[in-house]
Design goal:
Layout (H helix, E strand, L loop, with lengths): L4 H8 L16 E4 L2 E4 H4 L14 E6 L5 H17 L3 E4 L6 E6 L4 E3 L6 E6 L5 H11 L15 E3 L43 E3 L18 H11 L6 E5 L3 E2 L6 E8 L15 E4 L2 E2 L2 E4 L4 E6 L8 E9 L5 E2 L3 E5 L6 E8 L4 E7 L10 E4 L7 E4 L9 E4 L17 E6 L8 E3 L23 E2 L5 E3 L6 E6 L10 H4 L1 E2 L7 E12 L2 E9 L4 E2 L11 H6 L3 E6 L9 E6 L4 E10 L6 E9 L3 E6 L7 E6 L7 E3 L7 E2 L5 E6 L10 E6 L5 E4 L1
Parallel strand pairs: 2-6, 3-4, 3-5, 5-7, 11-19, 40-42
Antiparallel strand pairs: 1-2, 6-7, 8-9, 10-12, 12-16, 13-14, 13-17, 15-16, 17-18, 17-19, 20-21, 20-29, 21-24, 22-23, 22-25, 25-26, 27-28, 28-29, 30-35, 31-32, 32-33, 33-34, 34-39, 35-36, 36-37, 37-38, 38-43, 39-42, 41-44, 43-44
Helix pairs in contact: 3-4
The structure holds zinc ion (ZN).
Length: 675
């Protein structure tokens, strides 16, 4: 690192030109200035641009003796790189390739990923951009003034270069798609390795940069662009938690602390990377970065807390950073903001399944569905009064007020589910069904499966390939993870009339007993305590199973076609998805999925179901419980505690295709109702 005169002695002390081995320099490699490179490159025999880190993930640790202050300084430098490109520095656990930062008498780094433990030596810990410079070497970047096209922009004054230092100005074969960047932190200064007079002169047309090369004051736009070229664009920052998510009306100003990912201190230099800032309803607040924790804080003024509202908190890494995070709600008032966990639109039935939190809160109509753009006249549905919607609800159809009017362009339709905060939930796509009709009463529905739609908000996906049709799952407030066994479940090997044991990773209560294992059966049920290969779907057969959830108990044969997937979140929910599995001896594919939330509910979604005999129901197991027959297509129903709620379907009589069922549970897993 030669940009500042004070470093010259430091670097020379590394015996640069003698290619001496230094701490952290592996055999076969040498130190050239501050780059550790294979020997042949040092001798000018080949180009080298370093190995990129797979997926931009760089594990790191610190050697003993690195002070907590210097660790903090390093993390602050790393955060700045993470804000502008898809690189991610993670504390090393067991990874085979990683960087160790250590105290040294100079600054140097291996070029690119070595594949094992590689060292970044540092002495100038108090220069953030020296740390960034060395880390950029480790990411595979050579010096800017060694680019193969550098002679177009600068002239190396060989006569002014200290004895033996000429290799520091050799040409690299490394290529970059980006413009020559005089302001790069990877560019030497005019005084580097000088024996008198500038070692580097900017060519005619670029002389305005003569006193700017050797920048160590901010990460240049070109540095960010280079990182993006090699590792991809920066993801948006992400909020993981807020120090508080609500405040009473009339609260005096409060200090909000936000914990998350890709927060950066930025730089005070106006040309540098701006720091991460907190947005209140989209408006930036004065934000501070806390180096010790990597959190950010902002004061929310009392004036913002005088009226009941559901505000949104988001964080932004302004350009060249990754932009604005998904917002999370902040309630000013007595209750929490409503949020949507899951929204299913079932084909071909015109019903919506709405699964959320605090949907019946005091902030106004709990659910408003509008066409986009969000004009008042585009209202197509809203619950009749504040608080009228349960947190889990099935809306059988969407009646449209006569005032709504207006046609929707076929083939490009969109709706907004406005949960008192229009920015929270937004959906639009190229084929959101053909059935939003121009005159009421309207229903939402669709005919042929439309293609998957990726929403503009990154946290939501609509995938029409799912068994139950259209489903929108929002990684809602505070990042409720998307949970979909059909999408991300593990494929099970199931032959005809068999079962497979799966670990849940948590205790799931069922009829008052907790289980940590589940047995997924071929014949459309999951059981606890033991598996079963029972295949004759009768009410007594259901009751005789081990403790069971039977979304579609029948003689199915996943050994002949289709897939069965299993997913657990290891904490409170598991799911099973049958896709395209035929009834035994038939070729008609059957699809359904079930998600069980401990102590809350069992949700079942049916796609196409062939005309075989089935039983749908729940059972405490091994012959216990009173049989409680139901007509599941006419819910809701209340279920007597400890009973065996079920419906028997004769061949051809199954009427739940395209429908979602939600069984509600007590906290100990006793079925209490069905929606
Ligand atoms: Zn360097």
């Amino acid at each position: 690192m030669l940009k500042m005169p004070t470093f010259v002695g430091v670097v020379l002390s590394l015996s640069v030109v003698g290619f001496a081995q230094d701490p952290g320099v592996p055999p076969g490699c040498v130190l050239v200035d501050d780059m550790v490179v294979p020997e042949e490159m040092a001798h000018g025999e080949s180009g080298y641009s370093g190995t990129a880190w797979p997926n931009g993930v760089v594990p790191y640790d610190f050697a003993a003796g690195v002070s907590s202050l210097n660790r903090e300084r390093t993390r602050t430098a790393l955060a700045e790189l993470m804000a502008v490109a898809n690189v991610r520095f993670v504390p090393r656990t067991t990874e085979a390739a990683w960087i160790t930062f250590q105290n040294s008498t100079g600054n140097n780094s291996y070029l690119g990923m070595s594949g094992g433990n590689q060292v970044i030596n540092l002495v100038n810990w108090d220069y953030r951009y020296i740390i960034c410079h060395e880390v950029m070497h480790a990411l595979g970047f050579v010096h800017e003034h060694q680019r193969p096209d550098r002679d177009t922009y600068v002239t190396i004054n060989w006569a002014n270069i200290s004895a033996g230092a000429a290799p520091q100005f050799g040409l690299s074969a490394a290529t970059t798609p980006n413009a020559y960047d005089f302001l790069s932190i990877m560019h030497y200064s005019a005084g580097a390795f000088s024996s008198g007079g500038p070692s580097i002169s900017c060519n005619a047309g670029y002389t305005q940069f003569q006193n700017q090369i050797g920048n160590l004051s901010y990460l240049s736009a070109g540095d960010a662009q280079g990182l993006v070229s090699r590792y991809g664009a920066p993801p948006t920052p992400r909020i993981l938690s807020l120090s508080q998510t609500s405040a009473p009306v009339g609260t005096a100003s409060l200090l909000l602390t936000v914990t998350g990912e890709r927060f950066t201190a930025g730089d005070s230099n106006p040309l540098g990377t701006p720091r991460t800032r907190i947005l209140w309803n989209g408006t930036p607040l004065t934000t501070n970065y806390v180096p010790a924790t990597g959190q950010i804080t902002a004061t929310i003024a009392a004036g913002l807390l005088q009226t009941a509202t559901c505000a949104t908190i988001a964080v932004e890494n302004p350009f060249p950073g990754g932009g604005i995070s998904a917002p999370v709600p902040f309630a000013v008032g007595p209750t929490s903001c409503p949020s949507l966990v899951e929204f299913s639109l079932n084909s071909p039935a015109a019903s919506l399944t709405i699964d959320g939190q605090n949907l019946g809160s005091a902030y106004g109509p709990a659910l408003v569905v509008r066409k986009v753009p969000l004009a008042p006249t585009s209202l197509i549905f809203q619950t009749s009064a504040p608080g009228s919607l349960a947190d889990t609800a099935i809306v059988p159809a969407l009646p449209v007020p006569a005032s709504a009017g207006g046609a929707v362009t076929p083939g490009f339709q969109a709706i907004n589910l406005d949960l008192a905060s229009p920015g929270l939930v937004f959906l639009q796509g190229g084929a959101f069904g053909p059935a939003l009709l121009p005159t009421g009463p309207w229903t939402l529905g669709f005919a042929a499966p439309p293609p998957p739609i990726v929403l503009t908000a990154q946290t939501m996906v609509v995938d029409a390939s799912l068994a139950d049709g259209f489903r929108l799952t929002q990684a809602a407030a505070l990042e409720v993870p998307i949970f979909d066994p059909c999408q991300s479940g593990t494929s099970l090997m199931l032959s005809d009339d068999s079962f497979v044991q799966q670990s849940l990773g948590f205790a799931f209560p069922w009829y008052g007993t907790s289980f940590s294992q589940v047995f997924v059966g071929s014949n459309g049920y999951v059981t606890f305590l033991a598996g079963s290969s029972q295949k004759t779907p009768t009410a007594l057969g259901l009751r005789s199973l081990p403790p069971a959830i039977a979304p579609l108990y029948g003689d199915l044969d996943p050994g002949s076609a289709g897939t069965v997937r299993f997913l657990t979140d290891q904490s409170s929910r598991f799911g099973v998805c049958f896709t395209g599995v035929p009834a035994a001896g038939t070729a008609l594919p059957i699809s359904f999925s079930v998600i069980a939330d401990a102590g809350l509910r069992v949700s079942i979604s049916y796609g196409s179901v062939a005309s075989a005999p089935f039983v749908v129901g729940l059972a405490p197991g091994f012959g216990s419980g009173v049989l409680f027959p139901l007509d599941l297509s006419t819910g809701p129903h209340t279920i007597p505690g400890g009973s065996v709620p079920h419906e028997v379907f004769a061949p051809g009589a199954f009427d739940l295709g395209g429908v979602s069922l939600v069984w509600t549970l007590t906290s100990t897993g006793v079925p209490s109702g069905v929606l």
